[in-house]
Amino acid sequence: MRPTAIRRTAVAATVMSLALFTAACGSDGDDKDSGKAAGSSAKPSEKAADKGADQPAAKVLTAAELEAVSLKQGDVAGHKVTKAGAADKIDAKDVTADKAACDVVADLLMGAKAGEPAASTQRKVISEPKADAAKDSEDIDEAFNAAFDITTTMTTLAAYEGKGAEETLASLRTAATDCASGFTITAAGEKQKVAKIEEAQVKGGEEAAAWTVTIKTDDGNMALKLVALRQGTTLASFSAMNLAAAGSGKDFDLPTAVVDAQAKKLA
């Protein structure tokens, strides 16, 4: 592997390989001691509370019910699905943004839970490289990209009381717009500069949104993908990186196969 590619991939690992954050991650705690800016957790607005106030409350899935609808091996063709382990997880209290309005983007991009869900589950989904793809090209760069065209997606399901899921997605949309010109994330003491956020197109659930988040690195830029979709009181969020894209500085596709498979199980 080329030295620049190694450095870029190391940066990608710093951002997305949550194993690096394990030492700083503890059990769920009160955010008042975490350094989180006030108001960083999504709270239902009065307008949203009035909307549909006469409608019966939607069912909030329990932890066991979330497990039942979480992705499992075999649900996504060409991908390996595993439960997120301790080395993959990070708590929202260990993630902050230098702009309070950007906290929810930082949380979900790092694979943490936003706000205070009643229950949650996480899966790590890794795409399988195409067989012999690297052998089809004599160009070193193309061969490298083909060999490392592997997308890792941290998938989180979070069930919220009341309008929590709806309001969390709404706050994420607002934050992505307000923070589009960039901000700095600190995750377990490691700083990452978000250069820009651009909206992408995605479908799924009752409502969905997606973005390409560009991270500034020593060697250039690196793209990450952030997707969120809501089904009832459950919010599914997807944070993805691609090894080849991290090494080349190029963009990559949204993890639509993962999103579609999860949306189908939630429907």
Q: How would you describe what is shown here?
A:
It is a single chain. This protein has 267 residues and is of the alpha+beta class. It has eight helices and nine strands. The protein has helices at residues 3-16, 46-50, 63-69, 103-109, 140-147, 164-178, 243-248, 256-266, and strands at residues 79-83, 95-97, 119-127, 151-159, 183-187, 190-200, 207-217, 220-231, 234-242. Strands 1-3-4-9-8-7-6-5-2 form a nine-stranded antiparallel beta sheet, sandwiched between helices. A hairpin with a 2-residue loop joins β5 and β6 (190-200). It starts with a helix and ends with a helix.
Keyword list:
267 residues, nine-stranded antiparallel beta sheet, 8 helices, 9 strands, 27% helix, disordered N terminus
